[in-house]
TrEMBL record:
Residues 159-248 form the CS domain. It comes from the Eukaryota. TPR repeats lie at residues 36-69. Pfam families: CS, SGS, TPR_8. This is Protein SGT1 homolog. Keywords: Coiled coil, Repeat, TPR repeat. Residues 35-62 form a coiled coil. GO terms for biological process: response to stress. Residues 271-362 form the SGS domain.
Length: 362
């Protein structure tokens, strides 16, 4: 039963029916919750649907069940890169590369993570010696000009303690506050009809308060939040399925468009407005995922079923009739394309070696 669900899930994924694939993998996991491969495959479906935190959770479960599965580390890294958690992604990639040294995708993605990390940190350790060398002026050569007026240097506004961003689905808005190592009891989140209040008071760290008036109304009793190791994730339930053009309310926004939930394609990528300029090349990551899909060829029953579908699709009418008649009359044990042979008589079942046909009574 589980193998049939997996076969159908793989076929749905190849046909870009990611919602169906996700549903089928979930059913298979209920039947076989200790199968690491199922979690890794469901993680890929979640990535295609931009369910990134769910994808990370599935990849982590696959790693827990089978720490030697390199594919699970690749899934985790892909989702973390889309979440801009490059350190976590790099760590997963390095472990996966050690397990599969011949796989070139790991080294390419590790290099990309290192570039992103360098951009975030500004690579100060390499820049400071060069800057000091250019500006090394002996103290004796520096003289104060008493005729110069005193200049007041305006201090730059302090940066917020944590960075935040959001993305949305037709029914909810997900706000992510990137705060590492914060205990759960140091985070307090309150919801109003159109307000959000987040307070983080961790020992030894600057207090953080985020209190925006939201773009539209929410349903407070359906909202929830999770404190994870690297962030606080807040899920806001929309009161109406409209598209939020920003997280915070603005009087300049005059018109909002209602989203038709039934028409939203599963393959559509949600936008990720953020307090930090986006530098992620989504097209590049998408191309890498597509390349990965090409590498994962069908095998076993899935490959055989696709082969038979291709034959049926291109066959003439007699061949199709022969295939249908032989398959039905033999209870799925015979598949013939010769209408002259099967059209004149009933096709008897032919079970595999070591098995026997039985008639089920209802």
């Amino acid at each position: 039963m589980a193998s049939d669900l997996v076969t159908k899930a793989k076929e749905a994924f190849i046909d870009d029916h990611f919602e169906l694939a996700l549903h089928l993998y979930s059913q298979a996991i209920q039947l076989n919750p200790k199968h690491a491969e199922l979690y890794a495959d469901r993680a890929q479906a979640n990535i295609k649907l931009n369910n990134l935190t769910e994808a990370v959770a599935d990849a982590n479960k696959a790693i827990e069940l089978d720490p030697s599965m390199s594919k699970a580390y690749l899934r985790k890294a892909t989702a973390c890169m889309k979440l801009e958690e490059y350190q976590t992604a790099k760590s997963a990639l390095e472990t996966g590369a050690a397990l599969a040294p011949a796989e070139s995708r790991f080294s390419k993605l590790i290099k990309e993570c290192e570039e992103r990390i360098a951009e975030e940190t500004g690579d100060l350790s390499m820049q400071m010696p060069e800057a000091l060398a250019k500006n090394d002026v002996p103290a004796k050569e520096i003289e104060l000009d008493k005729d110069q007026p005193n200049l007041e240097i305006e201090a730059a506004p302090p940066k917020p303690a944590y960075r935040h961003e959001f993305y949305q689905k037709p029914e909810e808005v997900v706000v992510t506050i990137f705060a590492k190592g914060i205990p759960h009891d140091c985070v307090k989140v309150d919801y109003g009809e159109q307000t959000l209040s987040v307070a983080i008071n961790a020992p030894g760290k600057e207090a953080y308060h985020f209190q925006p008036r939201l773009f539209a109304k929410i349903i407070p009793e359906k909202c929830r939040y999770d404190v994870l190791s690297t962030k606080v994730e807040i899920r806001l339930a929309k009161s109406e399925p409209i598209h939020w053009t920003s997280l915070e309310f603005s009087r300049e926004v005059a018109i909002t468009q209602r989203v038709n939930v039934s028409s939203v394609s599963a393959s559509q990528r949600p936008s990720y407005p953020s307090s930090k300029p986006q530098r992620v090349d989504w097209d590049k990551i998408e191309a890498q995922v597509k390349e990965e899909e090409k590498d994962e060829k069908l095998d076993g029953d899935a490959a055989l079923n696709k082969f038979f579908r291709d034959i049926y699709k291109d066959a003439d009418e007699d061949t199709r009739r022969a295939m249908q008649k032989s398959f039905v009359e033999s209870n799925g044990t015979v598949l013939s394309t010769n209408w002259k042979e099967v059209g004149a008589k009933k096709v008897e079942g032919s079970p595999p070696d070591g098995m026997e046909m039985k008639k089920w009574e209802y």
